[in-house]
Amino acid sequence: MTDNSGLSAIRSMDYVIILCDDLERMQRFYADTFGFHIEDEQPGRWVGFRVGTLFLGLRPRGRPYDGPKITNESAAIQLSFRVPPADVDIAYQTLKDKGIAVIEPPTNQDWEHRTLFFADPENNIIEIYADIHPRDTASAPSALHQISK
Question: What is the pTM of this model?
Answer without folding.
Answer: 0.83
